[in-house]
């Protein structure tokens, strides 16, 4: 049985097909129609709801695309929709701001936009433009434009008094604590035909996998749910890893960053910023806030898509994976993990436990570039990650990871060989660029042609060379730009 708070009321779901999404449950079962269906694929944001969870005994508000969130994922959380914001006849400050600033025209996308702004208002106490753009990056509005919506975001921080959610926070925490009382139980949901299990511990998870070898693993569902909503398949058995404590941790040791396979992408960004800011910057362009808060590293790797964004970066960083089953635990290099198109080394009784990322080496420079048609919320045509070490003007190490260039995320071994041991100069880069055609014969598809992919990869290597060159200049304390007057024979200054 799934138990959660529907706004402020305890709610339970039993005897239900676990393939049902939260949006379907709201609209078809509860007849609560404030959340809209635009795309049913996580792209438009019209179905955005807010999920509040207890994190260190505080309420953490985040958004989710209800169209691709399985109903089982609600367990232990508070579900808030646009219909819950109003108090008697009084609109919530976020709704009032949207009215005052004319942020709503069609009304179809508006509930999702309101929920993204509401979650933002709960997370921060003042307007910040970058943060607001990020919060709205998964909400498409095609008629008003975003200007009045941004104006509403400025106004929404000016309520005269606390809203009902702040006033009721202690009560909400108590109710959530009660629901989550037996933290170690395996939560289940079934309609007799299709079954869902949400273990709380790693041991429970691997035992469930052993006893249900055909079950599909799910964490955020931001890939898996599309099999149901877009390809109209039914998943007979699911094991949800999102509650497994051991898989949600993030630790930094003296040699590596260890990210649990079920940890959300969004909650790892702050730590990654300290070690690999380029990686963290790329994650800001991975899907949109809703998807990053729900989706995981384990899901991105386990999905084994050739256009997944984290694998190329992790390949360039020489990351390893810990694969765990009920009977064993083994470490594999990510480089060996992808064996063919959507094929991996993962055995049917295993899950991706930890992602192990070595800490930055001295003299190493990481550059990550995501090429897509849109800045936000778009799948990459090419993702290139360059990790080069330069010592005394010579490239001592090079690991290059690419996505969108082959049937799997892949290292560029021939290009690496052309770089290692060579002077860090244009001639070396020109030679290495030719080797990219040895490493890759990319496909043409709707995102880019084969020729474009190869050309853009060469250009990105050039870009990395220029940017790393500038960093080396700064490290060696040489001025980047010489005062123009000093370079002239005759100064008119
Ligand atoms: C609108 C939208 C935009 C997107 N944009 C991007 C993007 O820009 N870049 C990008 O790379 N991806 C993107 N994605 C894809 C998706 O969000 C990511 O791949 C995400 O990381 C998947 O994580 P998840 O937890 O939701 O995976 P799930 O959907 O839960 O699972 C995905 C697959 O991995 C398996 N799996 C999950 N966890 C584990 C585990 N611990 N061990 C073994 N197998 C596991 C599942 O069985 C399933 O086959 C986008 C998706 C949507 C809907
Ligand atoms: S309906 Fe478009 S994101 Fe859910
Ligand atoms: S207000 Fe709905 S598309 Fe812009």
From TrEMBL:
SUPFAM superfamilies: 2Fe-2S ferredoxin-like (SSF54292), CO dehydrogenase flavoprotein C-terminal domain-like (SSF55447), CO dehydrogenase ISP C-domain like (SSF47741), FAD-binding/transporter-associated domain-like (SSF56176)
Record-level Gene Ontology MF annotations: 2 iron, 2 sulfur cluster binding; FAD binding; iron ion binding; xanthine dehydrogenase activity
Entry keyword Cell cycle: no
FAD-binding PCMH-type domain sequence ranges: 189-362
Domain 2Fe-2S ferredoxin-type: 1-85
UniProt KW keywords: FAD, Flavoprotein, Iron, Metal-binding, Oxidoreductase
InterPro entries from the UniProt entry: 2Fe-2S-bd (IPR002888), 2Fe-2S-bd_dom_sf (IPR036884), 2Fe-2S_ferredoxin-like_sf (IPR036010), 2Fe-2S_ferredoxin-type (IPR001041), 2Fe2S_fd_BS (IPR006058), Ald_Oxase/xanthine_DH-like (IPR016208), Beta-grasp_dom_sf (IPR012675), CO_DH_flav_C (IPR005107)
The keyword Flavoprotein appears for this protein: yes
One Pfam family it belongs to: FAD_binding_5
Gene3D superfamilies named among the record's database cross-references: 3.10.20.30, 3.30.465.10, [2Fe-2S]-binding domain (1.10.150.120), CO dehydrogenase flavoprotein, C-terminal domain (3.30.390.50), Uridine Diphospho-n-acetylenolpyruvylglucosamine Reductase, domain 2 (3.30.43.10)
PROSITE patterns from the UniProt entry: 2FE2S_FER_1 (PS00197), 2FE2S_FER_2 (PS51085), FAD_PCMH (PS51387)
Name under which the protein is recorded: Xanthine dehydrogenase small subunit
């Amino acid at each position: 049985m799934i138990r959660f708070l529907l706004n402020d009321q305890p709610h339970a779901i039993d005897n239900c097909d676990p393939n049902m999404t939260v949006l379907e449950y709201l609209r078809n079962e509860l007849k609560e129609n404030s959340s809209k269906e635009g795309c049913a694929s996580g792209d438009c944001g019209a179905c955005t709801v807010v999920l509040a969870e207890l994190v260190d005994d505080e309420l953490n508000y985040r958004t989710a695309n209800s169209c691709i969130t399985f109903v089982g994922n609600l367990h232990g959380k508070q579900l808030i929709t646009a219909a819950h914001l109003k108090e008697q006849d009084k609109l919530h400050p976020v709704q009032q701001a949207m009215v005052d600033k004319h942020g709503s025209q069609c009304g179809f996308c508006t509930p999702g936009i309101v929920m993204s702004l509401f979650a933002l208002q709960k997370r921060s106490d003042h307007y910040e433009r970058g943060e607001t753009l990020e919060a709205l990056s998964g909400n498409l509005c095609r008629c008003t434009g975003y200007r009045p919506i941004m104006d509403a975001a400025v106004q929404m921080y000016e309520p005269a008094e606390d809203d009902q959610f702040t006033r009721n926070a202690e009560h909400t925490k108590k109710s959530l604590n009660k629901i989550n009382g037996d933290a170690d139980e395996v939560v289940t949901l079934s309609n007799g035909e299709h079954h869902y299990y949400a273990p709380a511990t790693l041991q429970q998870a691997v035992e469930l996998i052993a006893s249900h070898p055909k079950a599909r693993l799910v964490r955020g569902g931001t890939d898996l749910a599309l099999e149901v909503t877009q390809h109209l398949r039914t998943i007979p058995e699911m094991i949800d890893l999102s509650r497994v404590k051991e898989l949600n941790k993030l630790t930094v040791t003296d040699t590596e960053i260890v990210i649990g396979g079920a940890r959300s992408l969004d909650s790892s960004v702050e730590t990654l910023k300290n070690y690999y800011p380029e990686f963290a910057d790329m994650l800001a362009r991975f899907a949109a806030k809703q998807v990053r808060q729900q989706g995981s590293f384990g899901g991105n790797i386990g999905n084994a898509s050739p256009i997944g964004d984290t694998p190329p970066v992790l390949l360039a960083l020489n990351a390893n994976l810990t694969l765990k089953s009920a009977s064993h635990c083994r470490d594999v290099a990510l480089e060996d993990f992808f064996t063919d198109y959507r094929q991996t080394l993962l055995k049917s009784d295993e899950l991706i436990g930890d992602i192990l990322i070595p800490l930055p080496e001295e003299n190493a420079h990481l550059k990550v570039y995501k090429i897509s048609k849109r800045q936000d919320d778009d799948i990459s045509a090419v993702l290139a990650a360059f990790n080069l070490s330069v010592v005394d003007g010579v490239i001592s190490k090079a690991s290059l990871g690419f996505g969108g260039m082959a049937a799997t995320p892949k290292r560029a071994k021939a290009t690496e060989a052309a770089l290692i041991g060579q002077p860090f100069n244009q001639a070396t880069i020109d030679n290495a660029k030719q080797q990219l055609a040895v490493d890759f014969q990319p496909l043409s598809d709707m995102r880019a042609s084969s020729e474009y992919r190869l050309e853009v990869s060469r250009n990105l290597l050039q870009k990395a060379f220029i940017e790393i060159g500038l960093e080396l200049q700064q490290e060696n304390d040489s001025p980047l730009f010489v005062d123009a007057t000093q370079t002239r024979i005759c100064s008119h200054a």
